[in-house]
Amino acid sequence: MSTSTTSNLAFNSRTSSRNINSGLFKLNLDIVEAFEFPTLLTKPVSVSLFNSKVPAGFPSPADDHVEKRLDPTEFLVDQADATFFVSIQGESMIDVGLLPGDKAVVDRSKTATVGDIVLAVVDGDFTIKILNRKRDGSPRLMPANAAGNYQPIDIKEHMQFEVWGVVTGSFRRFK
Amino acid sequence: MRNIALIDVNNFYVSCERAFNPKLKDKPVVVLSNNDGCAVARSNEVKALGVGMGAPWFKFKDLAKQHGIVAYSSNYALYADMSNRVMSILRHYSPDQEVYSIDESFLDLTSFQSRDLITYAHAMRQRILQWTHLPVCVGIGSTKTLAKLANHCAKKRPHMNGVCNLNAMPVNEVNHMFAEIEVGEVWGIGRQLAPKLKALGIQTVFDLKQANPERLRQQFSVVMEKTIRELNGTVCIEMEEVSPPKKQIVSSRSFGHPVRDYNSLAESITLYISRAAEKLRKQHSYTSSVYVYIRTSPFKENEPFYSNGLTIAIPTPTDNTMQLVNVALWGLKQIYKPHYNYAKAGVMLSELVPVQGVQTDLFSQVQVSPKSTKLMQTMDGINKKMGKESIKLASEGFTRPWKMKQENKSPCYTTKWEELVSVQ
User: Fold this and answer.
1) Is A103 labeled as catalytic in the residue annotation?
2) How far apart are the C-alpha atoms of B120 and B116, rounded to whole Å?
3) Which residues from B are below 8 Å from A109, CB to CB?
4) Cα B162 to chain center, whole Å?
5) Each residue's pLDDT tens digit in chain B (424 positions)?
6) B401 touching A (Cβ < 8 Å)
7) Burial zone of A36 (CB within 10 Å; 0-12 exposed, 13-18 middle, 19+ buried)
8) In what helix (H) or strand (E) does residue B222 lie, and over which residues does it extend?
9) d(CA B168, CA A11)
10) Rounded Cα distance, B133 and B82, in Å
């Protein structure tokens, strides 16, 4: 009986504008955007409630399943305050399904372990790779591309290295 | 004894820039004000080079070139989003929060005093650093003035590791530390009053703590008396009360009856914004950041507690009531949850800049149209003559602000899909 729906900035309006021919869109950006509202990924975006009228007084079985409509943000984001999105460039991770242009979900609240896909910083540059460890215990970043065009990155002592966050998911649009 | 904490992000704007640009680590970085006028945030390396807060860019441009200082234009969308993350994380550490500015928050930890508060503060620091990449310092004291000083100590004394709890220190040790801190560092004293106090022989924080509050009230004001009493541990400035003049404008009120529906809250927020905007125009300033918050009563134990707030960045500073109402109501929509008994709502305008400081851009539209200024003047005039709120806003007719000229603004890493960090 009651349904309330609000549009989610992060997934509706933003993503639709993203599809406009990017060159054109950039030209317009300066005049189009009035306010730069922060995206609020913690906020549930839509709620639908079942509440059926049954004259005989039998409760509808659906009443036991009052549930919220599915929200992709909820699916992708565990800790909104610690979650950031980055854009994938290049093909070094295509074997794990990260294609150029994909948005990767980076969660800083998680602690990285060996085997995780991580957003790492190596000598001042961001890179997304699989975290691995060499026998001597030093970190090694593995690409995921069977074509073999990408080499593992071995972290040596003199290098600046930081795991910026753990990549927990990704998303893309086709249209 | 009260345990009030002040949490403050170190070099906030610079730290935001560094979070998304690892190359800036250990480099001298400065963030410039709107229209690249002057330094509003400096990394420690820049401070060490002698660039003062508010130094005009054209004056240290040569120095910047010489030392490789990286200068950024203000990216308020980024800062507001990062601020919201920090404030939201802090809210988990105490329900009694006062967001004091974009990068500072008071937390009343009194009800958590059975814990080791130093450990608690370190946990806060650790979490904010891990989740947001932003370094913070935590100062704890029995009053807000002491919490501010504790924060200062936490920042300036590396051996404290970013946490200073004055309540856990022996009195003589606190006094000894206060004797080493210049009186101008005390909250509310600042550059104007410090020379006058020094003329009276009050050089350090300890001197002021020992001073006679009544005598100094006669020479200065009741604020000075409050400051001295606060230094001695008597709470005179409650949570959510004070705002230093010029830096920000707060308008808030507790409701007579609990309010549940969105429309009533929206009405009160509109009213608070109108008041705040009037004050803003009176002191000839523009604002570039609006904070809106709502909360239920923390004292009703049988009712669910909810408290939330949001900072929204405005790209072009403004004093236009209509624009500000629009922004604030947008914010309210994001944080409003039905079925709660709201006891209080409020707004805060911060990042204030003097009207004269805002330059117009030669090549695009005028920054603030004379019409808008005229309209606001007329509105204020009528309201002054005919009594408050003679002219009010309907929720329509707001003109879009214009983008300002910013030569080296970083991408809006967290608020625009087109500007995400690209990673190979």
Assistant:
1) no
2) 6
3) 130-131
4) 19
5) 999 999 999 999 999 999 999 999 999 999 997 667 789 899 999 999 999 888 888 888 899 999 999 999 889 889 999 999 999 999 999 988 998 888 999 999 999 989 999 999 999 999 999 999 999 999 999 999 999 999 999 999 999 999 999 999 999 999 999 999 999 999 989 778 999 999 999 999 999 999 999 999 999 989 999 999 999 999 998 876 444 445 778 888 778 778 888 988 998 898 889 889 988 888 888 888 899 999 988 777 788 889 999 999 887 888 888 889 999 999 999 999 999 999 889 999 988 877 765 544 444 333 456 666 777 777 677 666 665 555 555 443 233 233 344 678 899 999 999 999 999 9
6) yes
7) buried
8) helix B222-231
9) 48
10) 10
Nearest Cα neighbor of B346 from B334, B332, B357 is B332
Residues of A in contact with B102 (CB under 8 A): none
| Alpha carbon distance B219, B197 (integer Å) | 10
- Tell me whether residue A2 is one of the annotated catalytic residues: no
Give chain B's largest Cα–Cα span.
66
* Rounded Cα distance, A134 and A101, in Å: 31
CA atoms within 13 A on the CB side of B247: 11
Q: Which two tokens stand for residue B159?
A: 């051996």
Cβ pair B401:A34 closer than 8 A: yes
Please state the length of chain B.
Answer: 424
C-alpha A93/C-alpha B182 separation (Å) is 56
What is d(CA B119, CA B125) in angstroms, rounded to the nearest whole number?
A: 10
* Residue corresponding to tokens 């994001």: B334
Strand ranges, E, within B231-339: 249-259, 285-296, 307-318
Token output for B7: 């949490």
Classify the complex by whether its ipTM is higher than 0.90, answering yes or no.
no
Q: Which residue has the tokens 């997304």?
A: A128
Nearest-Cα distance to chain B for A35, in Å, is: 6
pTM above 0.90? Answer: no
Backbone angles phi and psi of A161, in degrees to 5? -140, 135
Partner-chain residue, chosen from B313, B415, B420, that has the shortest CB–CB distance to A86: B420
Q: What is the Cα–Cα distance from B188 to B225, expressed in whole angstroms?
A: 11
